[in-house]
């Protein structure tokens, strides 16, 4: 699409520099301090409130980017919004109202679709990871990345740590909690893990549970961290609920679990090495195909 710009919170969302490169368009980044995710690539133009985006069509990636430019959307011919992670779900009520009022075109990570009350096209992020898998035989390494200390509540980290402690009484396993690290170090640790645990339980007190009949339920998700782990050859287990994405893209072959079944499902991966390896290979093949910049950019543009 000609005259297209990407406007993004930070470059890590949807691996935006690579998406911009694939689409041959300008990339505007709100927070330059969060632009060190990548090793090279298109760094983008840092946003300045005094400078207007000259392009006529725009892809907005992330909730904060949507907020910053929300009062300027009417000047664009085409507006697409990518709600890429769990953070946007905290504000799903505002987003529902805003999208309907402005008739926006929306993509979202598939497990986030139930939060929204309008048509959504599922889309996964794209990555260009130079780190290579480095799993070794012997002691099983299990990793989990809350992202930050403030997100530990939302990914079921407390449940994960309790479960790991119980399993360590029976099995010789190493557990790595990836927290407060630079991205390169984070990827290096993920590459060592045989099993990566993503969002097992997404219990966010700021998100209404009304759509579940007011019940507290166990619901997880597959986020950026889990997708990265797939590319690095780790077997990903997560509490994601299956969403039918077949008209657009096959669903990732993650090992699905819940807060209730998590102990048994994780133990099965520890005990059955053949099953664990099979799932890791299956996931890596899926990720290499469907998270590539070429596939994602084609998927995004053909639906605009």
Description:
By secondary structure, this protein is α/β, with parallel strands linked by helices. It has two domains: 119 residues, 3-Layer(aba) Sandwich (Rossmann fold), CATH 3.40.50; 151 residues, Glycogen Phosphorylase B (Rossmann fold). The protein is built from ten helices and twelve strands. The strands form two sheets. It has a seven-stranded parallel β-sheet with strand order 3-2-1-4-5-6-7, sandwiched between helices. Strands 9-8-10-11-12 form a five-stranded parallel β-sheet, sandwiched between helices. Helix 1 links the parallel strand 1 and strand 2. Helix 1 packs across helix 10 and helix 7 crosses helix 9. The termini are close together.
Question: Main attributes?
Answer:
seven-stranded parallel beta sheet, 2 domains, five-stranded parallel beta sheet, 10 helices, alpha/beta, single chain, Rossmann fold, 304 residues
């Amino acid at each position: 699409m000609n005259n297209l710009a990407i406007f993004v919170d930070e470059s890590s969302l949807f691996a935006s520099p690579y998406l911009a490169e694939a689409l041959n368009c300008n990339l505007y980044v709100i927070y330059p301090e969060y632009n060190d995710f990548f090793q090279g690539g298109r760094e983008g133009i840092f946003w300045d409130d005094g400078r207007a985006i000259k392009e006529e069509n725009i892809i907005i990636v992330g909730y904060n980017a949507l907020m910053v430019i929300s009062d300027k959307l009417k000047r664009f011919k085409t507006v697409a919004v990518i709600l890429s992670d769990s953070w946007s779900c905290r504000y799903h009520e505002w987003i529902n109202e805003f999208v309907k009022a402005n008739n926006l075109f929306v993509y979202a990570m598939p497990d986030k679709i139930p939060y929204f009350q309008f048509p959504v096209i599922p889309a996964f992020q794209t990555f260009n990871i130079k780190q290579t898998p480095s799993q070794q035989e012997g002691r099983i390494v299990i990793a989990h990345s809350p992202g930050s200390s403030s997100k530990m509540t939302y990914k079921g980290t407390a449940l994960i740590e309790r479960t790991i402690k119980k399993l360590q009484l029976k099995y010789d396993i190493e557990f790595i909690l990836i927290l407060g690290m630079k991205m390169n170090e984070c990827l290096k640790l993920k590459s060592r893990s045989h099993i990566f645990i993503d969002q097992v339980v997404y219990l966010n007190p700021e998100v209404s549970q009304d759509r579940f009949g007011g019940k507290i339920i166990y619901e997880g998700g597959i986020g950026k961290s889990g997708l990265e782990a797939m590319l690095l050859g780790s077997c990903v287990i997560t509490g994601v609920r299956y969403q039918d994405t077949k008209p657009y893209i096959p669903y990732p072959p993650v090992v699905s679990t819940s807060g209730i079944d998590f102990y048994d499902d994780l133990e099965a991966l520890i005990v059955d090495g053949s099953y664990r390896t099979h799932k890791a290979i299956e996931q890596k093949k899926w990720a290499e195909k469907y998270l590539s910049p070429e596939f994602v950019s084609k998927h995004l543009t053909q639906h605009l």
